[in-house]
Structures are given as structure tokens and as C-alpha cells.
Amino acid sequence: VSSSGDHHAAENMDCAAENDNRSKATGIPLSRKLCYAIGGMPYQMTSNAKGFFMQIFLLDVVKMGASYASIILFLGRAWDAVTDPMIGYAVSKSRRTRFGKLIPWIVFSMPFGVVSYIMLWYTPQDTMSPAFSFCWYFVWCCLFDTFMSCYHVPYSSLNMFLGGNDRDRDSATGYRMGMEVFATLAGAAIQGQIVGMYHAKRSQVCSMQNDTDVPAANHTASLSDTTENLQNTRKAYVTAALVIGFIYFMCCLVVFLGVKEQLAPLSKLDSINLPYLTGMKMVVCHIPYVKLVFGFLFASLAFQMAQGNFALFCTHAADMGGSFQHLVIILLTAATLSTPLWQTVLVKLGKKTTIFIGLFTYIPTLIIISLLRNSLPVFIIMSVLAGTSLSALYLLPWSMLPDVVDDFKVKNPSCQDLEPLFYSCYVFFNKFGGGVAVGISTLVLHFAGYKPGVCKHNSQVIFSLQMLFAPVPICLLLIGMVMFYFYPITEKRRQEIQTALKKAAFLKSCSVGLFQPLAVHSK
């Protein structure tokens, strides 16, 4: 029996080595990377459309009070953030089907997400009471965020189950982030170009009203056009939502047809047996994860605060109300084109160094934009630099997260299939940061005296927009960079983790192969 067991153990070791070499040779097919990357488009298109336009939509199109809008934006994001860990745990508890464990969640949540997104931008009545208006948009905001979490949490976890090694995963993450930045560009272009013409027309009307040389008859004519323009603006927002909803459906279809889940080292893609609180405690007590999450939280908070106030800043503080949608497209185009650059720098210098370079670029950009008024050429140049930095925020933290999950698996080999919890908590802090950024911004504008639909605001509102666009995000960004400085997984540590993972997977395959022939010969 011993001789036979040694013989079979040797065969299994050879087989495991052969499988490892085959995995290195094949990696992740390009078609699978592309299909996986396309699946990230719906989340970015919808979230950035909300990020850039939801605040100005509620304030200037729906004519909602700033206090009600701040509650919707903050509580909506808070609800979205709270549901993420719960959905992550539900995904972890679900069992594997013939379509996989994660992909069914993506497919079945899609129709509900599409419908709720369209209803979020629909205005049911021309004139609504504050209570009805608040309830309508708050309910649809919470419903959409819930269904999008059911899509995005399993989708982001899918990165760990594409096959290949860590370099293949980083490559797939690069494709995904490049496609997500492009989706951000596409979403802003669709939303911006469809609704931007009506915002530009409103800016022209405001200019006429503020121009003392314009005859009174022209003032009356411009005011008579305001109601019609408002109706057209509301229809334009619904049209943009329908287009984005259709793209959402097509991207989900591509993921379903083009991505098959693959087992990862020390993972079974099966239901976990840990209670919810126990699993959450293990995740949030993992030190590298905590430092990465808080670095990502503050950096994301900085970018989202600047992003959420960009439209209002351009419209009311920088006299660029007719051009902000074009600046958004320039910014996101630069972000899309610079993603391969950051992927190359990442490989050369390492992830930790690269993220410092990318985030630091954002600081002088915000300072220059906040100090200028009505200077389109300078705004274009700064938008390009801001887009380059935004690309680094998209790529680097999401590329670092799989390293943290691998580090946890090496240190806790008995705890398997917790990847959805890691990713859901990561998404939680990102969304929570966005909710805090938008909620605080809108609340500050409320106390500064912001009045919906007014063309010219007082000096306190202008000063608040300038502070919310540059000084506050810069302080938050510096805090995030400090957290990234203490992030412990360097390139050397990352290589050690991958070596330990391969060893653990090798020993596991050997032990399974060894005991099976021993049992046969015992009989």
C-alpha cells in the first residue's frame, strides 16, 4: 500500500505541476477579459450620470429644495452602502448553479435595475408637492441602488474567478478599468449631450435677464420660453435614461454569454458556513484591507465631492454654464486614454508608487480651476490633467484589492469563498464616501442660501462652491495618500503571497490525489 501510495502521490505531483504550467501558458483568454470588462460599464455609466447630473437635476429641473435634495442624495447613498455588505453575504451564501454562482445574480437583477433607473429620471407631474416629490425620488433612488448592488457586487467579485494567475488578473482589471472609464465617458456624453443643450439655453436666458441693456420685450419673451424649455429638459433626461438602460441590458448579455466562472486557489465557489457577523468581523479586522479601504475612501470622497459640484461650479461660480458638459467629456476622454499608461507604470514601478503619482496630479489641477473664471482654454488643459488622475483612481485601488484578498487567504486558509464580502465592503465604503460628499455639499449650499432656479446667487453660495470644489477635496485627498503610505503590501510582499498561494494549492491537490488511491488499495 505504501509503495502504491508513493507512486500515485508522485503521479499527482507531476499532474499538479503540469496543470500549473498549463495555467501559466493559457492565462485568461482575451475574449473573456473583454466580455468581463464590458460588464463593468452599466455601473459606471449610471453612477457617473447620477454623480454629475443628479444634483443639478433635483435642484434646477425638479425645482426641489436644497434641504430635500441633500437628504435624498445622502440617505440614498447611505442605503446603497448599507445594502452592499448584506448582498455580499447573500451572494456568498448562495450555491453554485450550472451557470455559476455569481453570474445568475448579475442576470436576474438586470431588468429591475433598468426599470428603476429610468423611473429615477422621470418627472410624474409638472407641479409636485415637496412631500410627494421627495418620496418619489427617494424611493426610486433606493430601489435602483439596491438592484445595482445585486449586479455590481457579484460582478466585481468575478475578477477572482476568471482563471490565470495574479498578472492575468491585473491585466483583466486593466481592461475592466479602461472599459469603465470609457463607460463613464459614454454615460456623460449621452447624458450631457442630450440634456446639455437645454442647460445651455437656460444659461442664455439667465444672461439675458442679467443684461440691463436688453429691452424689456426680450425679457418677457425669454421668460415665456422658460416653461417650455423646462418641459423639454425633463423629457431629455428620460430619453438619456432609456438609452443608458438599453446599454445596461446589452452589457449584461455580453457577460452572460462570454464569461465562465473558474475556480481560484483555496476557493470552491460554494456556499459559506460562517455567520454574517463572524464573516464581517474577519474581513474588517484584516489590517491590509482596512488601510486600503480607508485610503480608497478618502481619495474617492475627494474625487466625488469635486465631481458632484463640478456642474454647479461651472454654471454659477466660473461662468461656464454652457460648456461644462463638453469639459466633462474632455475629462473622461483623457481618463480613458490614460488607463493603458497607468497600467504600464504600474508594472514598472509597482502599485503603491503609481497611485501616489496619480493622486498627486489632481491637487494643482483643482487649485488652478478654482481660481479662474470664464477661461475655456485653461479649463480644457486642466480637465485633461484631472482625467488622467481620475484614471489612476479607477485602476489602482481595484488592482490592489485582489492582493489583499490573496493575503487573507494565505493567512486564513480554512476560510474560503469570502471574496464577495471583501468586494461588497469595498464598494460600501466607495458609495458611502460618495453619499457623504454629495449630501454634505448640498446641505452646505442650503445653509449658504442656494435657491433653485435662480440665475444669480449671493456671494456666500459662490464661496461655498469654490470651497467644496477645491480646498475640501484636496484635504481629503491628502488624508487618503497618508493611508496609502501605510499600506503594507509592497511588490516584494505580493510576490511572497503568490508563492504561498501556489504552494497551498499544490499541497491541496496532492493531498486529494494521495488519499483517493490509498482508499482504493485498502479495499
From TrEMBL:
Protein name (record): Sodium-dependent lysophosphatidylcholine symporter 1-like
Main subcellular localisation: membrane
Transmembrane domains' residue ranges: 52-76, 102-122, 134-153, 236-259, 279-303, 324-342, 354-372, 379-401, 421-449, 461-487
Pfam families hit by this protein: MFS_2 (PF13347)
GO cellular-component term (any): plasma membrane
Source organism of the structure: Triplophysa rosa (Cave loach)
Keyword rRNA processing tagged: no
Highest taxon above the source species: Eukaryota
Record GO biological process: carbohydrate transport
Family the UniProt entry places it in: Belongs to the major facilitator superfamily.
